[in-house]
Amino acid sequence: MEQVGVRMPVAQSVHAARLAHKRARRLKESAIEAVLFLCALSAVATTVAIVVILLYESLGFFEVVSLREFLTGTVWTPLFTNPQYGVLPLVAGTVTTAGVALVVAVPLGLVTAIYLSEFAPHGVRETVKPFLELLEGVPTVVYGYFALLFVTPLLQKLMPELPGFNMLSPGIVIGIMIIPYVSSVSEDAMRAVPMSLREGSYAMGATRFQTAIKVVLPAALSGVVAAFILGISRAVGETMVVAVAAGQQPNFTFNPTESAATITAYIVQVALGDLPHGSIAYQSIFAAGLVLVLMTLAFNVIGHLLRRSFRERY
Amino acid sequence: MRTDAPQPPRSAELAAMRELIRRHKRADIVFGLVGLVCMMVGVVTLLVLFVDLMIDGLPRFSRDFFMNFPSRHAERAGILSAWVGTCLVMLVTMVAAVPLGVAAGIYLEEYAPKNWVTDLIEINVTNLAGVPSIVYGLLALGLFVYIFGLGQSIATAGLTLALLILPVIIVTTREAIRAIPVAIREAAYGVGATRWQVVADHVLPYSIGGIMTGVIIGLARAIGETAPLITVGALTFIAFLPPSPLRSEAPYVSFEWLLSPFTVLPIQMFNWVSRPDEKFLLNAAATGIVIIVATLAMNALAIWLRYRLRKRIKW
Questions:
Q1: Do the Cβ atoms of A150 and B281 come within 8 Å?
Q2: Buried (b) or exposed (e) across A108-118, using 16+ Cβ within 10 A?
């Protein structure tokens, strides 16, 4: 051990050895840092790869199909002998199922969030939240089974003319599936509202319900809206539930009691068949994927911006 | 504001006020009940789903169901190739995603300078978590299957799912590292440790529990993923096992299985759900039980682990 604090005269060779050791150490450090940086960069690489692959394959598609036909056509039959490429039926199916999901998830998620944030005793919250988290962990193909073989028959008892494949039942199931997500993001927003606001309200003689609805909720509104928008983004991208329970026939309708294909269900349907690489039908799933990415990206960006603006306010 | 002493309210006013207070208190209780009911919708759905699967699928459970290949006869069909496929794909996913994700998390938390590159990486991680899983399937179809020439193989599937769970692992790694007090790092730097020594000897060992939790949650998600693997082109009817990774002669291990075609449990289930024959639906339910038990067990393990660790570590 050498002494600390006292400068000892050192021989030239020892000095050089120590310097070499230091240099090696610094080299090793920067090598490690470079490797870690490359690993972190993989996230950027993935995004770039997604964009490049989708654009590249879609370009081949749009050489054959005009953008105008793609965006305004109301018939989607790429696998027929006389193919037509109007994406609107797929978008309609996607919007309809996501809409049904939202009708279920918004009220239930919002009330759950208010309850968890403002009403629930500590014990209840700690017991129930893990269960809600488990709800998110259930694989979506299992939800598909549940929608097709439990929810649809149940709905058919209420609405006898409901077909076996419809958008209502997968929509409801997706709605229940995204409740935990919607409620946890909104709960975060409500808990971020400063206690002093609530105390002010209580001091005026307001009840808990009045405080929650008239003080906490308006203060947390942008965070709550962000939760809904992020929820929509999830519902739009959901695949297996609709692929199993909504039928896979493209159908230009906004009526949830009919069967229809969503963008995601179409991709699954095409991928199940063995399509030759480079064919127009093969490229069509990339064009459909591009639409899907643009839709979810728009929702995600809006959602995160709202969420961030809310966080900064307090 | 009145300056004179408040007059005692007349009894009619008093009664009205009391009625108002009572009504507001009632609204409080009513909302509490409504909230409880709404919250229970999710939990009850989970229970109903589980019981429904059990009723349909449990009678199918037997040794044969786990040891048979899929078959055209529903009674003889089993999930051998599916569960073996799931295990192998998960192995590839873990080997690819864990080092990459943990390293990325360490970089962002311990090394990254505050500049636009770091911002770019962070925005990308957030965005990737929101990309629908089927899009990863499209990426893998274009990149791994055709450009890298890996084909519709176990390696492709494992790498696809690895990309999918990468954001989960990165985010949880960062959270676990962030929970370590700065004082620990300062103490290590104070005695002359380099950055990597601080990370390897202090930060990683203390955050390993939290990182494990993230890895388990990520793998639990990967095990149930169906859509990206269908897009990649997983086959639904596989009546053989991939070549064994162990050999009797040198070099004793073989990686041929990586390029073998495969099926996994969720795809097998999807295949059986989409058949009109009702007997196959029972097989689907039984497969569903296997998947759901596996994911729920992993999630429960992660929740339990997180709870234990939170209790044990006191800074």
A1: no
A2: bbbbbbbbbbb
